[in-house]
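Hello,

Following up on my earlier ticket. Below are the two sequence lines again, exactly as submitted.
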Amino acid sequence: SSGVPKHDEL
Amino acid sequence: MNVFRLAGDMTHLLSIIILLLKIRATKSCTGISLKTQELYVIVFLTRYLDLFTKYISFYNTTMKLVFLGTSISIVWYMRYHKVVKQTYNKDQDTFRHYFLAIPCFLLALLIHHEFTVIEVLWTFSIYLEAVAILPQLVLLQRSRNIDNLTGNYVFLLGAYRALYLVNWVYRYFTENHLVRWIPWLSGLVQTTLYADFFYYYIKSWKNNEKLQLPA
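Thanks for your patience. The regenerated structure is below:
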């Protein structure tokens, strides 16, 4: 896990 | 997008459609917690701030707008529609919003990925969504009569996050093993809160009886 996860869910 | 995620989104959408159908067709919101519905408006407003800052897909944007629009219209019906608002079980829907919202906000201030407004509010929305069903579950427990639409609404709403859990397991193994503790643990808490309801819902369905939760 690196950096901020992109929020691609709802 | 995998099939579990899509099934989760569709279950979520279907639950909202069923609730709107109940309200519009029967002109009644009996058994529905306005507290929970208002919390969902806050959840969607704080989570979907990125509508203005980043584009993911047409699907994503459309669904976000649908969730925002439908949740706001449900609250509007329950608060302002002159027939529907009279069917609201105000005396039984006594859960306090801030008992849930304030701890979730403090937790989001403490535990988040990045200390920015959008990221903290996104995290807050994940924590709040996990517990937003509580006023609804309390109201159901107090209701002697749970109609089918309300029962199905709550069942589908719970099933949606359970499907997301499967989606996260699937994504972990198919997409470079990304660990995302905040939504995973919150989603697990959210689904666990429904365990009792699921048990009685399935039991009543198997025995072909009316759904009733023990007090």
